[in-house]
Amino acid sequence: QLILDTLDKQGTIKDTRTLVLPGQSDPAATHDAQIIILGALNSLSSREMITYTTQETLSHVLTPEGASIALNGSHEALVWAAVPAKGEGEPITPKQLEEKIGGEAAKVGQGRAFKNKWIAKEGNGLVKLASSIDDATQKEMREVDSTGTLKAGEKALAELRKRKLITQKKGQWFTVHKGPSFSTSTAKPETDLTTDMLTSGAWKTSTFKKYNFEAEGVPTSGGALHPLLKVREEIRNIFLEMGFAEMPTSSFVESGFWCFDSLFVPQQHPAREVQDTFYLSDPSTSLDPPKKYYETVSKVHEHGGFGSTGYRAPWSDAESRKLLLRTHTTASSAAMLWKLAARCRGEKDDPEVEALAAHTGTTRSSKDTGDGFRPAKLFSIDRVFRNETMDATHLAEFHQVEGVVADRDLTLADLIGFMKVFFKKMGIENLRFKPAYNPYTEPSLEIFAFHPQLHKWVEVGNSGMFRPEMLEPMGFPKDVHVHGWGISLERPTMIRYGINNIRTLVGHKNSIESVEKSPAVRF
Length: 523
Ligand code: PHE
Known about the structure:
Elements: H1 2-10, E1 12-13, H2 31-46, E2 50-62, H3 64-72, H4 75-82, H5 94-101, H6 103-115, E3 119-122, E4 125-128, H7 136-147, H8 154-162, E5 166-178, H9 195-200, H10 227-241, E6 245-246, E7 253-255, H11 256-259, H12 291-302, H13 317-321, E8 323-325, H14 330-340, H15 351-357, E9 376-385, E10 397-408, H16 412-425, E11 431-438, E12 441-451, E13 456-466, H17 468-474, E14 480-488, H18 490-497, H19 502-505, H20 512-517
Parallel strand pairs: 6-9
Antiparallel strand pairs: 1-5, 2-5, 3-4, 7-8, 9-10, 10-14, 11-12, 12-13, 13-14
Bound molecules: phenylalanine.
Phenylalanine binds at residues 328, 330, 402, 438, 441, 462-464, 484-486.
Keywords: Ligase
Protein name: Phenylalanine-tRNA ligase
């Protein structure tokens, strides 16, 4: 407002250092005052109310020593003040003087005080020679402090610079002219054209702020892939280059039938208890499973069949129909295998299988014996849920990487051979296999890999040959064998990124910044 009013009165402001800012008594000659003025000039010129040009100056500011002199007086003045007047008490010794005003002031100040004839020697001590003094140095300091320069001129300034009481500082001041949109009103211009302005017609008379095309834009924040998704993509690529097709795994909610019964997991198995599995209360039961298949599965469980004695325990329809969050993606594999066997059951090919078959590469044998069987290599990478105690390495949900290969006369050696190729593509060459137990596979193998950083063998997967009690009720011919395996997605990801607490990788403790910065993974 001061700038606008002054322009209104004078037409131009030649030197902004002559302005007197509100609440001040002196003109705005200091650096700080000019900075404040510059802020106002920028704001006014962006609205084209003024134009201005910048003039560079060199001004002076006080050093800490100079500032202390401005406040307390020069060293020589301190010396003079500390010395007794002639005939008034004992002359002060140099040592006493030092104690009184400090070594530095005593040393520097004495010389000048002598030169100014302010003090004189008397015996071993000092006495006042002048009854009053004019502390020119302090005056100079105060002048520089308020004006940035000395009226006395450059020679005097150079002397003070030599004494390290002042230093030069680049400064600036401004010349201001009226701009094309000059007015004395500082009412804020509009920044946006709004619907209201358009409908009321106010846009015709409003003043708008000019676009500043030089302004730096707001940094854009695009999406970023979570480390788990990066590793998933790499593993997916391995499967695809090995001729696998991806299974649909969208059903997080499964029935006890598909998650357990179809896999020949006994209905009394501990994994099915609520401590291990999340069950749904609403809806609490599944839709009808495929009738004939359901009957066959329940019969094999209860009484046996296909060369098996079964579990010889009463079958519970309620157990089978419970709805749950799938505890493994093998539930989806089972459903897919059942669809794959449709042609073997003499039914029409399942459209989902047909779509996948188009993507599946050749398997070892594709001899067609007229029983409708078609080999398949299928994989999935998706989320599973377990009612587990959470700690540094366990969450209630995680991702499984799972695959199945269905072909005639597959053996355990095929499974092991597959593992070697698969893990080699992930950069893991040192594998060991340990016999294990799964209700749905026999034999079963746990897979261990040597971890060069941890320097020990770590479990990387679980696998096996699916049991005939699982495959034959689906309708697969006897010579069709299926091997399958599951590995976690989190473990290789944590190893890759050097993360040792899963909660820094997944969940609310995972920082968006680390996600944005996490490098891509290449196996
Ligand atoms: N479902 C098993 C698990 O959750 C993995 C697996 C899949 C094992 C297929 C064998 C065959 O650990």
